[in-house]
Specification:
Domain Apple: 343-428
Number of domains: 5
Distance between the termini: 51 Å
Largest sheet: 8 strands, mixed
Number of helices: 19
CATH architecture of the largest domain: Orthogonal Bundle
Low-confidence stretches: 1-26, 433-483, 651-660, 785-790
Mean pLDDT: 81
Number of strands: 44
Catalytic activity: L-seryl-[protein] + ATP = O-phospho-L-seryl-[protein] + ADP + H(+); L-threonyl-[protein] + ATP = O-phospho-L-threonyl-[protein] + ADP + H(+)
Radius of gyration: 32 Å
Helix content: 25-40%
Subcellular location: Membrane
Main location: membrane
Oligomer: single chain
Transmembrane segments: 446-467
Bound molecules: 2-acetamido-2-deoxy-beta-D-glucopyranose
């Protein structure tokens, strides 16, 4: 204030007030010693181009301080302060200026990130967010005395006007480092910076050791390896190269054009421009153009399939190290073994040979140098690898090549390309997918074994042999391929479920019990009730169900028949059913998880409707039938049971629920059922997922509050925020809007007006557009008079 008074001595009070208001109530672009930043408060650059504050990219309670574009509808972060040390909301973090003039992020009173500027301010410093997106730390009274700026410490993004280069004397350089995945800004393995060797170009590097892309020299118009740089008429390019420094920047001539260059999660350098019309980022160029040219893009034990359909997969016997990252399309964390190899270093005996096995994977190109040994035969190479526990793989091509560590940067070449070689990967025997010819022999052997054991059993009737039978059953499972079902013995299941003592559910078709297989794998055993079907037909239909495999369908492992009793055995889902998470106040599901559930269920249903040999109508879509695995990925349960249970089923349904549940009007009208009945129930369930409450609730007054009609009216009026679960804080409104529109279209009276599951998946993924739906008449009439808007 002293400064203000000095410059305007005659008018003190009004200006003082204005100034005060601007700081306290309007948006500010400054963090000063007396005004730290915390919670939902943000600062905004003067013209409003950029905003700085706390954000949570995964909506998972991990908060970061970041800067993002403020004028576009999709939050896009260009800089993160504490990228590898998130703070949780509960600990009330605070971004503040310390006594020594640095900008520091404190959590629970302790500093977890600091600007670490060594140049001390003589007086007092202040942090200002500029309209370029640069956060600067400067002297409070001398705006040209800047000690630190975020542009010098980029995360993965470079924006218009930002210098990027190297000081050839001090070796300080800007380094753009990829995020782990789009929900985790922690540094990934890829970085992009000036070439530290030639100091005359830029390079992309994996693990700071393998250069996999070079920009080439600046020609005055472009870098030689980036032929498609935008025209000079739209951009200003500044390239500086002398004995002291190398640096480059681009600036858009039209300030309303929003563009950025990032190093993607998968190591590609990309130029993106915001499109006002389609409201999304449009990719200009990206390098390397082939994903598989990024060094080790699929991480350890991952393989990049080259060719037209480039993508990563895990070596057989391996699974993604982080299934979340993998699903988000960020592969660099690679894969881990499903089962540890059995090798025991001290004891190289025949026992080991049986416990580990090698799996051949064809036409692999590798860049990681193997140990080369002069061994003539394939068999010799194999036994060398087998006898050393640190050996992970071998390949025999002229020499014997042995790898003794994690495998990196594997590529599988398309058929016909002969540059690759066959590689043999060491696996635990249980992960070893038995090759076709061997498999038949195995089965034969097992059948003989079972026959023999069976007759011994009958002859002796000894209890000890029953125990052996259990072991055989589980070993048979280990050898069965993915597509065959295990036929379980009743006493075995009784043993696994501790005499059916742990009941975890009661559905329309019977009770579900939890059990453990001898190898500790948890299972869910469903005892079907009221089955009238013959044994043969049951076999046929269950076997058909056993052939259905999809990520969003619960996996059927096997079944059991005993007299009139029928049981189905499934993978056990640790996180139970969706209703338990939606309607109870325990730990609520965040929006992101909910949206993935919405999408996952749609994909599972689409698969049942369109992609199975015979169209399967589920007939019983509801939150109780959506199970959640350890990552909260949804798996639809009970598919195919409607057919299995035949007529009994529709009676069960109609007696179980009132008219206004999940049942489509055609059920009630007795019309033939098509897949659109599932679409209807799916829509009903969407309302529950979005709102976090049951569609119909008995109010204290005795009236029934029927949510979907009220919600459909709101949605048709374009007002979606009110129907959202009030417990949710951070929500992607575009996703919410799409989900709401889908829900309304799904519950249309006329089934011809409802979309197909295929269309729903496309709308949810934003591949297809959709308008607002009319309010369904049937429902409205059905509940008129009963419904109260809450
Ligand atoms: C932090 O938590 C409080 C209470 O749990 C909540 O009101 C607030 O919105 C949260 N802040 C953010 C940024 O999510
Ligand atoms: C700041 O310096 C401290 C101590 O030297 C170091 O531990 C920390 O990682 C530095 N932080 C940043 C953001 O460079
Ligand atoms: C402001 O800071 C700049 C850069 O450090 C310096 O050259 C200049 O003398 C300072 N001006 C004043 C009035 O202190
Ligand atoms: C990655 O770099 C680190 C540090 O330079 C090194 O110790 C490590 O071995 C590298 N990883 C691989 C797989 O090369
Ligand atoms: C770039 O320039 C350097 C130094 O003039 C030269 O050694 C190098 O060969 C050039 N690189 C390319 C790809 O032309
Ligand atoms: C950059 O400058 C260095 C030293 O001045 C020079 O040797 C090199 O050729 C220059 N590179 C380019 C690409 O201009
Ligand atoms: C994009 O939209 C924003 C806000 O509506 C506007 O300010 C800007 O000029 C538009 N940019 C272009 C390139 O049309
Ligand atoms: C190696 O295995 C054999 C039998 O398989 C066993 O008798 C012997 O004790 C084992 N040796 C060591 C060092 O574990
Ligand atoms: C296994 O291979 C590693 C790496 O080549 C070597 O250091 C080790 O001595 C070998 N172990 C045995 C038992 O041969």
């Amino acid at each position: 204030m002293a400064l203000l008074k000095k410059t305007h001595p005659s008018i003190t009070l009004p200006i003082f007030l204005l100034h005060f208001c601007a700081i306290t109530f309007g948006a500010t672009d400054t963090i000063s010693r007396t005004q730290p930043l915390s919670g939902d408060i943000t600062i905004v650059s003067k013209e409003g181009n950029f905003e700085l504050g706390f954000f949570s990219p995964g909506n998972n309670g991990n908060f970061y301080v970041g800067i993002w574009f403020r004028t576009i509808s999709k939050r896009t972060v260009i800089w993160v302060a504490n990228r590898d040390i998130p703070v949780s909301n509960a600990s009330s973090p605070e971004l503040a200026i310390t006594m020594d003039g640095n900008l520091v992020l404190n959590s629970l009173g302790a500093p977890i990130w600091s600007s670490n500027s060594t140049r001390k301010s003589s007086r007092s410093s202040t942090a200002v967010l500029l309209d370029s997106g640069n956060l600067i730390l400067r002297d409070q009274y001398n705006s040209s005395d800047i000690f630190w700026q975020s542009f010098d410490h980029p995360t993965d993004t470079v924006v218009s006007g930002q210098w990027f280069g190297i000081d050839k004397i001090t070796y300080e350089y800007q380094d753009s480092v990829s995020w782990k995945n789009q929900e985790d800004p922690a540094p990934g393995p890829f970085s992009y910076h000036a070439d530290l060797v030639t100091m005359s170009q830029y390079v992309s590097i994996w693990n700071h050791s393998e250069v996999y892309w070079q920009s080439g020299n600046w020609t005055g118009k472009a870098f030689t390896s980036i032929p498609g740089m935008p025209l000079k008429s739209d951009y200003i390019y500044d390239f500086v190269n002398n004995s002291r420094e190398l640096k480059f920047r681009w600036t858009t001539k039209d300030v309303s054009v929003i563009t950025r260059v990032i190093l993607s999660n998968n190591g590609q350098l990309q130029r993106l421009t915001w499109s006002n019309d389609s409201e999304e980022w449009i990719t200009g160029w990206y390098f390397p153009a082939a994903l598989c040219d990024v060094y080790s893009v699929c991480g350890p034990f991952g393989v990049c399939r080259t060719g037209s359909d480039e993508q990563c997969f895990c070596l057989p016997g391996f699974r993604p190290a982080s299934s979340r990252s993998w699903r988000l399309g960020a592969w660099s964390q690679g894969c881990v073994r499903q089962t540890d190899i059995q090798c025991a270093e001290s004891n190289i005996s025949s026992a080991i040979k049986e416990s580990d096995a090698f799996l051949k994977i064809t036409n692999i190109k590798f860049s990681q140098n193997p140990v080369k040994l002069k061994v003539q035969s394939m068999e010799g190479c194999r036994s060398i690898c087998l006898s050393n526990c640190s050996c992970t793989a071998y390949a025999h091509k002229q020499d014997c090549n042995i790898w003794n560590s994690e495998l990196w940067d594997l590529k599988q070449l398309p058929n016909g390309n002969t540059d690759g070689s066959d590689m043999y990967i060491r696996l635990a025997a249980s992960d070893h997918v038995v090759q076709d010819s061997e498999k038949k022999a195995h089965h034969l052997r097992l059948i003989v074994l079972f026959a023999v054991l069976g007759s011994i059993f009958m002859a002796l009737c000894a209890l000890s042999i029953t125990v052996k039978m259990f072991q055989r059953t589980s070993s048979r499972k280990a050898f069965s391929d993915n597509y065959s079902l295990v036929v379980y013995d009743y006493s075995f299941l009784r043993h696994c479920t501790k005499n059916f003592s742990d009941r975890v559910g009661q559905g329309s078709f019977g009770s579900v019990f939890k059990g453990l297989l001898p190898d500790s794998k948890p299972i869910a055993v469903k005892k079907l009730q009221g089955m009238k079907q013959g044994e043969k037909q049951f076999h046929t239909e269950v076997r058909a169900l056993g052939k259905i495999h999809h990520n969003n369908l619960v996996h059927l492992i096997g079944f059991c028949l005993r007299g009139a009793e029928r049981m189905l055995v499934y993978d056990f889902m640790v996180n139970g059913s969706l209703d338990a998470h939606l309607f109870k106040d325990e730990k609520i599901l965040d929006w992101n998880t909910r949206f993935l559930i919405i999408l996952g269920v749609a994909k599972g249903l689409q698969y049942l409707h369109d992609e199975c040999q015979e169209c399967i109508i589920h007939c019983d879509i509801k939150p109780e039938n959506v199970l959640l695995d350890v990552n909260f990925s949804p798996k639809l349960a009970d598919f195919g049971l409607a057919k299995l249970m035949e007529r009994h089923f529709s009676r069960a349904l109609t007696t179980m629920r009132g008219t206004a549940g999940y049942l489509a009007p055609e059920w009630i009208g007795g019309l033939p059922i098509t897949p659109k009945a599932d679409v209807y129930s799916y829509g009903m369930m969407l309302f529950e997922i979005i709102s976090g409450r049951r569609n119909s609730e008995l109010m204290e007054s005795g009236a029934i509050r029927y949510f979907p009609v009220w919600a459909a009216i709101r949605i048709s009026e374009g007002d979606i925020s009110e129907i959202l679960d009030p417990r949710l804080s951070a929500v992607n409104f575009q996703e919410l809007e799409r989900a709401c529109k889908v829900a309304c279209w799904c519950i249309q009276d006329n089934e011809a007006h409802r979309p197909t599951m295929r269309q729903i998946v496309q709308i949810l993924q934003d591949i297809q557009d959709v308008s607002a739906a009319p309010v369904p008449v049937f429902l409205k009439q059905l509940v008129d008079g009963e419904y109260i808007s809450s």
